[in-house]
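Record type: monomer structure entry
Structure origin: computed from sequence
Chain ID: A
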Amino acid sequence: MARINYAGLIVIMILALVFPACVKEEAPPIEEVKPAEEEIIPPPPLEEVEEPQLEEVKEEPVVLDDVFFDFDKFDIKDAYRDILTGNAEQILGKEDIIIVIEGYCDERGTDEYNLSLGEKRARAVFDFYVAYGVDAKKLTLISYGEEKPFDSGHNEEAWASNRRAHMVIK
């Protein structure tokens, strides 16, 4: 006959009494929660705080002056070096601008000659700016020769005002 282990049997019975069989019980249905019918009181208004006023920094406009040339010349006269230096200082202070240097001539001479001379005048100003420290990527040049005269007269005074390099900000 088989021997029964009474101690083990007693342990099993105690466990059965303490821990009833795992029976899956259904969870009670979730009741819908209704909001309380209390009056919602808004928070008191915040005190108005005056925001500090930032001082507006007004950026000075860039104004580039023209330079003028002698008849049949493209070298920069000493009298215009200060003007070009002032122009270059303004260009150096601006990161996001492009300058177009336009070269012009008076009406005397052939179209081809005047286009070439206008380009040499614009190139002289371009080279001055680059030597001063202006990034060449910020500069471009074009020659209009005798096209687009500043003064449409046909005398020495008109011709002198048409022999120039003009700077346009893009």
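Annotation 1: The CA atoms of residues 105 and 163 lie 4 Å apart.
Annotation 2: Residues 67-169 form a domain with the 60s Ribosomal Protein L30; Chain: A; fold (CATH 3.30.1330.60).
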